[in-house]
């Protein structure tokens, strides 16, 4: 059968997109060589040629749109602010208010989106929750949490972001129910305690502020953490962090407390609380800083950096900030 | 009347009331809620609804949620756009027609990218709007060039699936 009428399979579309990206990021002789390879690939099957033509059409349409838009950086800014507002409303009004109504599964068919969760925070937002068992929770910026309490356990699922937990007495339950937090790379069980967990796509980090926590990392043995301990676990190993550059629970008091941290790392951390882009020039990326910073006045924070380090902050739009050598 | 239309009429009688209430609660505006309730049923008519009987409430809420988000997006874009215009000197304010056109474009772009992770959206917009090279985007976002490529790849695939219905 000829394939002319068949839609390109997902794998073919993805291959075409790969070609497009390779072509875009190449130059000179490389560029020509990749062009030849693409032509050969397109000639192999009609579905290849169709997928390639569609990618070209799609990116062409984008270019047309961009040409007609107002100034690009203004458009970036407008889109960023609007999308933030939509996310905020969606989280507030559609999820939290609308959970009782069925059909959420239909609408939220796309996997792993933060607003699938019971509780979410937007960029720069923090949220305090008190659960039925008396457990007190702080969700940090851009985080998502599910709560699944059963007669046998109090289960929390951190889907993304960062959480601080102060376990409650659970006096309403006839018998003791363990409080457990699952995250991407393992499970933490409270042993009478206050602790925080942070999800970084490639690893998770647990810090114990009070009491003890049992940690069951995926792919590593169970261990008990004492007060003051911080551990990173990534699905194969777990390692203690002896001198964290970031205080693990300062954020819950609206602060960023850092010790001898690289500027690039600091700005990356700051970016979690801002909508948009925070860049750092490579020449100053290795500067170090220590101190305690208030997160609620970031303009002031950035001015302070300019005063204390040999850098200047360039902001093209509210959405786009970059640190450069002074 | 075709079977579908009969089904929708009885659906309308049974569900219009609470749907309107549901929308009013979310939009805090009864007039807009009435409009969107109407639009929800219109959408039903233009859709092929083989499974209409199974969970009409869920289906209606699904459609209504989509319309609510579209409505929020449009008004959020209008507000953001107006703020940007307000910062311009008066003689540089574009004509109403140009403004409307720009808003429509922004809306199309925002709708297209809806549902992408924030970082993916940003990487893609920096590429398309900012015209930055992958390495430059990587520096801006503080990630590797490889992961910028991954984000752009995701975004393109997402747009492809929306743009070409058979995907």
Q: If you had to describe this structure to a student in words, what would you say it looks like?
A:
The complex is a heterodimer of chains A (326) and B (167). Chain A is an alpha+beta fold. Chain A has seven helices and 16 strands. The termini of chain A are far apart. Chain B folds into two domains: 1-93, Rna Polymerase Sigma Factor, Chain: A (Orthogonal Bundle), CATH 1.10.1740; 115-167, Arc Repressor Mutant, subunit A (Orthogonal Bundle), CATH 1.10.10. Chain B is globular and about 55 Å long. Chains A and B meet through α1, α3, α4, α6 and β13 of A and α1, α3, α4, α5 and α6 of B.
Task: Give a short summary of the structure.
Chain A: InterPro entries: FecR, Ferrdict_sens_TM. Chain A: This is Anti-sigma factor FoxR. The complex is a heterodimer of chains A (326) and B (167). Chain A is α+β, with helices and mostly antiparallel strands.
List keywords for this structure.
heterodimer, A: 326 residues, alpha+beta, Jelly Rolls, 4 domains, 11-stranded mixed sheet, 3-stranded mixed sheet, 7 helices, 32% helix, globular, B: 167 residues, mainly alpha, Rna Polymerase Sigma Factor, Chain: A, Arc Repressor Mutant, subunit A, 2 domains, 0% strand, FecR (chain A), Anti-sigma factor FoxR (chain A), Ferrdict_sens_TM (chain A), ECF sigma factor FoxI (chain B), transcription regulation (chain B)
């Amino acid at each position: 059968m000829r394939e002319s009428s068949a839609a390109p399979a997902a794998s073919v579309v993805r291959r075409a997109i790969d070609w497009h990206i390779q072509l875009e990021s190449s130059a000179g002789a490389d560029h020509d060589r990749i062009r030849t390879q693409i032509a050969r690939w397109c000639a192999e099957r009609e579905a290849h040629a169709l997928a390639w033509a569609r990618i070209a059409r799609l990116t062409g349409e984008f270019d047309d749109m961009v040409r007609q838009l107002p100034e690009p950086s203004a458009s970036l800014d407008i889109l960023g602010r609007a999308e933030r507002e939509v996310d905020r409303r969606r989280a507030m009004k559609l999820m939290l208010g609308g959970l009782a109504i069925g059909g959420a599964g239909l609408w939220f068919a796309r996997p792993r989106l933060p607003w699938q969760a019971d509780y979410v925070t937007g960029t720069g937002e923090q949220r305090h929750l008190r659960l039925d068992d008396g457990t007190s929770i702080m969700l940090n910026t851009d985080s998502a949490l599910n709560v699944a309490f059963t007669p046998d356990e109090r289960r929390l699922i951190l889907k993304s972001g960062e959480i601080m937990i102060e376990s409650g007495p659970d006096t309403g339950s006839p018998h003791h129910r363990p409080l457990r937090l699952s995250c991407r790379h393992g499970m933490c069980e409270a042993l009478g305690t206050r602790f925080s967990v942070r999800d970084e796509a490639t690893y998770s980090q647990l810090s114990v502020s009070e009491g003890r926590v049992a940690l069951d990392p995926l792919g590593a043995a169970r261990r008990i953490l004492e007060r003051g301990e911080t551990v990173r676990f990534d699905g194969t190993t777990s390692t203690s962090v002896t001198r964290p550059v970031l205080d693990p629970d300062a954020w819950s008091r609206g602060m960023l407390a850092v010790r001898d941290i690289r500027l690039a790392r600091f700005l990356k951390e700051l970016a979690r609380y801002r909508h948009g882009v925070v860049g750092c020039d490579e020449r100053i990326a290795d500067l170090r800083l220590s101190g305690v910073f208030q997160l609620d006045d970031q303009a002031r924070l950035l001015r302070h950096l300019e005063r204390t380090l040999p850098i200047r902050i360039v902001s093209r739009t509210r959405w786009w900030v970059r640190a450069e050598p002074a | 009347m075709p079977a579908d239309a009969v089904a929708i009429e009885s659906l309308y009688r049974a569900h219009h009331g609470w749907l309107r209430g549901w929308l009013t609660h979310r939009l805090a505006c009864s007039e807009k809620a009435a409009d969107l309730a109407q639009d929800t049923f219109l959408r039903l008519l233009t859709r092929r609804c083989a499974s209409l009987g199974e969970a009409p409430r869920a289906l209606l809420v699904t459609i209504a949620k989509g319309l609510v988000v579209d409505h929020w997006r449009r008004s959020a874009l209008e507000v953001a756009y107006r703020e940007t215009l307000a910062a311009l000197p008066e003689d540089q304010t574009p004509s109403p027609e140009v403004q409307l056109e720009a808003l429509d474009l922004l809306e199309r772009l925002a709708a297209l990218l809806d549902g992408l992770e924030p970082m993916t959206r940003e990487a893609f917009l920096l590429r398309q709007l900012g015209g930055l090279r992958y390495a430059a985007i990587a520096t801006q976002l503080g990630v590797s060039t490889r992961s910028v490529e991954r984000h752009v790849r995701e975004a393109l695939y997402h747009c492809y699936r929306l743009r070409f219905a058979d995907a």
